[in-house]
Amino acid sequence: MSTAPRNAAAKRDWGHDETGCTVLHIDMDAFYASLEIARHPELRGRPVIIGWDGPRSVVSAANYEARKYGVNSAMPMVRARQLCPGGAYVNVDMKYYRMMSKRIFDEVFRQVTDQIEQVSVDEGYMDVSSALLRWKSPSVIGAWIRAQVTARFGITCSVGIAANKLVAKMASTNAKPDGMLLIPKAQHAQFVQMMPLRGIPGIGPSLEKRLNEWGVKTVADLAEMDETALTQATRSKITAHNLYLAARGQDERPIVTHAPEKSIGAEITFEQDTRNFAEVRELLHHCSNEVTHALRQKGLVARTVTVKLRFADLSYSTKAHTLERPIDTAAAMYPESVALLKTMLRMPADAGDDTPLPREIRLAGVSASSLSAKGSTPVQLTIDDLLGDGAANSSSAQSNSHRDPSAGSNGNSNQGNANDANHTDDDCIRHNTGDYEDGNEDKPTSAVAINATTNFRGHTLPSNENAQNRSNETLDTTVPISSDSSAKNTNYDSDNQIPIGTGPKEVQSNENDRGNRQERIRSAESVLDAVRERYGTGAATLGLEHGDWKAKQIANNSKPEQ
């Protein structure tokens, strides 16, 4: 649901000249809440608030009945309960919302055209210029979409029709709820200039305050400024140019049907501010799992890792590090995130879990950027790669090929011993199994985390022994690959990083050894991907005890995904 300011006077008949108005913006009305009401009819007519319960949780969505009580999205859930104690509070179900979003886009929108730019689960732009031969009119298309969404899914949407994306979005916002608004091309400037500053998408509180200091209170005031003055006010030529166009109802942005992903991230708010280094480290570990899982699903690798921290006073800080080689595993991302955390807080590199943090942390997160397709990204071999000796540099243990979880390759143990035993094909995780390599059958296992050596589709997952005492790799890559002890005394060609005197067969053998080691790492994380899909993200933790922590920190505090 859009929270942008609206002008009641804008919701009127602006005329019926559709010339050049081939851009539609469709926005679902209170999408999450409407979907919950559609599958739970007993909620109809009641204030419905979507969000996790907890002191740090916020409202993900609220229907129009709840808004009458002053409840809005992004409001603290505690405040929402004070304003609307009799409301129906429903937990977020992103899997269901995403599934319904995909159905709406596929079964309705794409029946009109494939020129669609989806910007979130509940809104998107359409360029219907190529569909007019069949549909004749953009308004006919908008009316058909609204009727189909209601008939098929039991929810409503609002449609804005204009000649560009900016005005179309502003039109759909002012058409809410369950309305459609056509703004003829000749009326774009007049329509935009009757709005408050925050009515233009992209103008937030900070920019609004800066413009107010220059005497700009409305879009009409903004239209009186030239680009030079706007550049001085905004301190950005790009922002000034975009605002100059927006104030006149113009927008140069095209419909982008396949926008490349720029970054993938995960961040979580703690239930209580903390100075506990171990808690923050474990949260970064969980986020690293989530981000690298998404990278592998999308067939991407990343070269830049960024850590974000928000402190108790709501200020925040970020720090990034660009790696020499691309990564897509938590075994590589997690140590980088911990190193960045220590650097940001000016902690010594050897700081242990008992070291208190210098500032209280409210939120922490990890993101990956500088993304590229895994299959087409070259990787420079190192001497360690050629020798197969990656004990001290697990961040370089990456692969360009993705293993199928059912391929039957075994993962390595925490002690670096490859397990070559054959396993039967097994679709279930064996919790509390007691199958430890040291023979101790009394070690406890978590009902959520994978702490035992676990069999899944012929794979062996690593034991979690001593995982709490390790702040480096959660998946040890110290796997002996070559039994040739003479490799330690080999001379190297410093330019090509190839052992001098090594023939083609030996080089090929070393590259194969390197590939085997990397395949074991990827195989283990691929197994965790499969475990995650079947048993939920809590099961795939790569060795850290996340059960109790996740139940406390995540279930009540996950941010709604965009």
Features:
alpha+beta; disordered C terminus
Explain the layout of strands and helices.
Layout: E1 23-28, H1 31-39, E2 48-50, E3 61-62, H2 64-67, H3 77-83, E4 88-90, H4 94-107, E5 116-120, E6 123-127, H5 132-135, H6 138-153, E7 157-162, H7 165-175, E8 180-182, H8 188-193, H9 205-212, H10 219-223, H11 227-234, H12 237-246, E9 263-276, H13 277-298, E10 300-311, E11 316-327, H14 330-344, E12 356-373, H15 383-387, E13 455-456, E14 459-460, E15 492-493, E16 498-499, H16 504-535, H17 547-553
Parallel strand pairs: 2-4, 7-8
Antiparallel strand pairs: 1-6, 1-7, 2-3, 5-6, 9-12, 10-11, 10-12, 13-14, 15-16
Task: Give an overview of the whole structure.
The structure is a single chain. Helix content is 33%, strand content 17%. A hairpin with a 4-residue loop joins strand 10 and strand 11. The chain contains 17 helices and 16 strands. The strands form five sheets. A five-stranded mixed beta sheet has the order 5-6-1-7-8. The protein has a four-stranded antiparallel beta sheet with strand order 9-12-10-11, with helices on one face. The radius of gyration is 28 Å and the shape is globular. It has 562 residues and is α+β, with helices and mostly antiparallel strands. The C terminus is likely disordered.
